Amino acid sequence: MASITRRRSIGLPNTGAGMGGAATLLYVLFIGLPVGALLFKAGQQESFFTTLTSGPALTAMRLSLVTSAISMVVIVLVGTPFAYLLARSKSPLLRLIDTLVELPLVMPPVVAGVAMLMAFGRRGVLGAPLEDFGITLPFTTAAVIMAQIFVASPFFVRAAKLGFQSVAKDHEDISRTLGVSPWCTFWRITLPLAAPSLLTGLALSWARAVSEFGATIMFAGNLTGKTQTMPLAIMSAMETSLDTALVLSVLLVLGSLTVLAALGYFAQRHWQGEA
Q1: What is the model's pLDDT at position 168?
Q2: What are the residue ranges spanned by the domains of the chain?
Q3: Counting beta carbons within 10 angstroms of the beta carbon of residue 96, is it exposed (0 to 12), middle (13 to 18) or buried (19 or more)?
Q4: What is the CATH number of domain 48-274?
Q5: Burial category of 150 from C-beta neighbours within 10 Å (exposed 0-12, middle 13-18, buried 19 and up)
């Protein structure tokens, strides 16, 4: 009996490892095959670099980079103190707000765009008052930024909150007993310790903003040079030029890979520093 039990105990990890290896292979093939096919087909295009430097591609790429950069600045400036407050406060009201932070994550992007129209459109709740001041938001570049902030901010806020929660409050209390102001304590102790989580949230938030499609097309439209970001340009290019669609798709994939590589690099440096 003891030998049988020993064999079973030895066999179970091997079985689990085999199942894990098969699942890993299946997952890698499922994710890697479409990406590899995209890169392969794009590499076969003779006019790849010509299309890359064409007017529509450069315009869409420039608009996506500019709008996503502005969105990230707003998200970091507003989301960082907001996430810190959520991490440190025990107010019932903030707990209720905390449950609503992830609402844009589960809300379909098209629905988010319609909701923003109902709020800021000409017939929306705030649309008419804004028009009295000469401000029109729908179908403008500002609408693109607002749509990106709406769908991407939860990624940063949630990651930043977890990062601040991982910082022991005792560190802040000791710093303050030594006469350091709360502002300096936050900048010198709390923020550096939570930085890896903030960088992770920033990377995920930027990737979501660059890839935003549904809310943008509903709230900002698809106007070339004004609201047509790279995902919208890919959709338009699929109707006329597959070459352009492939080039823009490859650019988005390479941008995502660059962000992931940079994130892995900074995370590795952080863990090595702790070790």
Answers
A1: 85
A2: 1-44, 48-274
A3: exposed
A4: 1.10.3720.10
A5: buried
Q: Which among 157, 193, 198 has a CA at the least distance from the CA of 175?
A: 193
In degrees and rounded to multiples of 5, residue 15 shows phi and psi of -65, -45
Report pTM: 0.83
Is the CB of residue 53 less than 8 Å from the CB of residue 265? no
As given in the structure block, the two tokens for residue 207 are 């990737």
The parts of the chain modelled with pLDDT lower than 70 are: 1-14, 16, 46-54, 263-264, 266-275
Integer-rounded Cα Rg, in Å, for the chain is 24
Digit-coded pLDDT (tens) for 108-154: 989 999 999 999 988 888 888 888 888 889 999 999 999 999 999 99
Token digits of residue 15: 């079985």
Pairwise CA distance, residues 203 & 208, whole Å: 9
